[in-house]
Inverse folding.
């Protein structure tokens, strides 16, 4: 299957060694713009809370229900005055707020961004290029919240387009600039419901993000499952993440953010993303902070 | 063994249900003070980078060396266009920057803060009180960096006291106020070296933190291993964390911070700590961000 | 609490270094007796089948139900011509057939068999004495099946006594000799049912096992949960395993064995137990084989 | 790439649903032949002993060296009178004695035995056909030990052929019959040594196994790494396991067996393999027992 030449694409834009993708758009000027949004130090978490499942389901712990993204083991420390534990985390889980690395997606021709064979990059010992390493130290930029659910959740199977984003900009009196992170509320969760098809991001919306210079996408929803009937289903992962090299935060929690933005009448903030500083992953749990 | 009545103690100060400990000192005013430190959006990570070990050491991955704090498993996703992985994290590991929860330490009488039996609180299904839950959404305050190693690493076995902190305040022309986080550089790592006993925090230093109202301690070093010859060995964990209910960030990376502070001539910043939002843990990996 | 002097006890019987407990009763003569039971090479498994749960419950695998004793991770091998996986096993799980090591139980005075402090034996790096090591190479003896459920499951809360065992011996025309393994069917599973209290082994039954010289106990049931109203609740684990140092196989599958024994009219067989040869565990999954 | 028509092949021999492969050769008559080898109940383990690595490498356990095939976590049980643990096992590990399932290997055309697409059979939720399930209840047959190292280890890079097997038969005065398991000693371990290329099984040896009707292969060595210069490198895994559907036990321990066989002057025995009874795996740890 030939790659569609008309799809937006950033492969090669920042060189053959690049691992940052659209994070290259976050310049010193963008960071200074973010800094100017900080006034009283109020912070809002954009992560879903996670109750871990005990990995042990035998006689010493309750039998577990459906698996959490996190499993916890309480350890025998051998000393009565200290406690300790281990956690095992499923990096790509629909109930865990996580950042997708660029090498999470592979092109049909077997290549990963910005043009390397997946067979060399994706190894049993981790991702050698375009993994979590380039953003392990943290990401800071301006966040702009576009609330598509200000009047209630989007309709089932609604195809999200540029028009939805621009309508929100108009309502909120903001404008997304190059290097900003886009934070979206659809009023849905990422858990599929067979009765009610999800809304989702269309290729039209991805083209708009590309034109505006979005550095990072965060949303309570992204690609619809099942896919929308669209010219390019799964456009957020298959075009924005893969072709544009735009990192995504899946399963973002935006309810408290919506409340605070409405209360303050402000839809821009400093956005800080500081994952555990682990290299070589395909994705990593994050707790994005919106600071006002 | 009777508890030493003269040790500083916060048990009961914020009530019988409290789980925040000294984080209660972070008021709106403290947060606003932190916000005023943000000028150009430059961020510095205070976390050590971690190269995970592949959990699989068989024919498909290299044999592992000494264990990393993080083990990674690359997954068979069943589809050729996506990659995924799992990580297992040792929460208390001397090469992992992590936040100690209040219930990480138990008093000799079997109680955890603020006076509950460890047998009820610490269960095979996780920590029921004083675990990671109260800071899972994130912590934001002003950070003050006291660089005790500006002229080189502290001497071996040096007992760190209030005088060291106040000397640094004088050199840097800063003053640590109630609610601030204290970030310390000793110029040492937490990996024990049998040849060179570590420096460490003394009870005198902990008393000073208590008087100043430190909300949170971060340091490249904390308690010395082997313990210092001190009136109360292990004072950071056994008095500050346990008696004062002051959360600690073990194994903080402060090298880049020292460089940036010296370059800017500024030793205060907005400190944001946003761990993966997981409840019920005894400790959690963090990537503290100092924002200037 | 003083130890009950009248309870049967093997501490010291085989010396201060012993790790075999009642497996010492399996002499060459006992093994030869076992060998004589082998006629046509028919083998019956006494292990419950286990369907592992995928550890990954995200977008690439079905969400898991209640946790299995075994979790499986299918690995990315990096080569298209080979598959591989990892398993994580909960050693003491009521739906996993497993052998309890002697150090699985600790006396109220803090000692493990044959009189060592648990604080020295049970460490974060595994069990240093009386763990899985002494039987890791395998156990072979004669098995005797006493079918207490030949006429249907035992009544709810039935206290199993020596009389039950001797009645079965009479029905089956067998006699359990010193060194034999005792295999018991009660017609119950080890999963507690709040509506129907389980039957269970009494101290009287344990005394009988001691007098007969049982080397090893295997049963579909053992100690009742909730405990029987008995002179010594939990006698199988707290007296047979702990005081007598008699290894136990919890959650033994005996349905097929009952069918085969009835069909052949034979209730004795060669019993082979060959766990994965792993040292230092508190318990280990096993698949006991009854060979006729 | 067309499959080589002249390679020995059992695909289709036992039907389109078969999962047993050459285990189909173990008839009642073969089992009775195995039973006749049992005389005094002496058992020898053919598994390598495994010292597990503590998964926890932090302040409460020693830092780990090179990873073991097994990692152990000692658990906080919440009660002072019982201990428990978890193990994580790498199923295909060169220092772990394990049984390879038929679906461990995939043909270049993407099919697994006996002609199913790997994309359907090998899923993130385990192996759906030709995994550990068909031998989870246990395998019993006659074992024949061919000691190729009776006069010392095979020479480096020695290509093992039918002639080696027949010479051993002659020395030992045995003959391998249809349905028997073949147990081989080369005097080497499976850990590659760059200085000394391993000996290995050739296609000629595999053809001989096929003609004789070997049901199962166990050896201290199998395929050489690096591969022999052979007409078909890796013939044990790529022809015997994959084309013939002959399960393999990798990393078999044969030292004690060699001693016992020489002492008894007997090279045939009852072989019992009873893995943990876990379904759907690509491989499983085993502790084969040779019973005399």
């Amino acid at each position: 299957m030939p790659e569609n030449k008309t799809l937006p694409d950033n492969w090669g834009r920042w060189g053959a060694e690049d691992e940052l993708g659209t994070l290259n758009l976050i310049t010193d000027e963008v960071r200074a713009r973010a800094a100017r949004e900080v006034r009283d130090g109020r912070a809002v978490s954009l992560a879903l809370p996670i109750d871990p499942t005990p990995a042990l389901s035998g006689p010493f712990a309750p039998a577990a229900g459906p698996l959490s993204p996190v499993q916890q083991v309480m350890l025998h420390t051998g000393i009565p005055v200290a406690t300790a534990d281990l956690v095992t985390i499923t990096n790509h889980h629909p109930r865990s707020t996580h950042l997708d690395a660029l090498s999470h997606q592979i092109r049909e021709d077997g290549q990963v961004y910005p043009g390397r064979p997946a067979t060399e990059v994706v190894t049993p010992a981790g991702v050698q290029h375009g993994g979590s390493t380039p953003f392990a130290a943290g990401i800071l930029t301006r966040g702009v919240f576009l609330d598509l659910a200000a009047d209630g959740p989007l309709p089932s199977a609604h195809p999200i387009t540029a028009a939805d984003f621009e309508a929100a900009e108009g309502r909120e009196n903001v404008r997304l600039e190059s290097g900003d992170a886009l934070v979206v509320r659809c009023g849905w969760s990422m858990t599929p419901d067979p009765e009610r098809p999800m809304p989702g991001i269309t290729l039209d919306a991805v083209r708009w993000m590309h034109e505006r210079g979005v550095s990072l996408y965060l949303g309570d929803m992204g690609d619809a499952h099942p896919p929308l009937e669209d010219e390019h289903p799964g456009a957020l992962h298959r075009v924005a993440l893969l072709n544009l090299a735009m990192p995504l935060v899946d399963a973002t929690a935006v309810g408290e953010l919506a409340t605070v933005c409405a209360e303050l009448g402000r839809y821009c903030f400093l956005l800080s993303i500081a994952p555990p500083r682990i290299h070589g992953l395909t994705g990593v749990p994050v707790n994005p902070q919106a600071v006002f």
The two ends of chain D are 47 Å apart (CA to CA). Chain D has six helices and 18 strands.
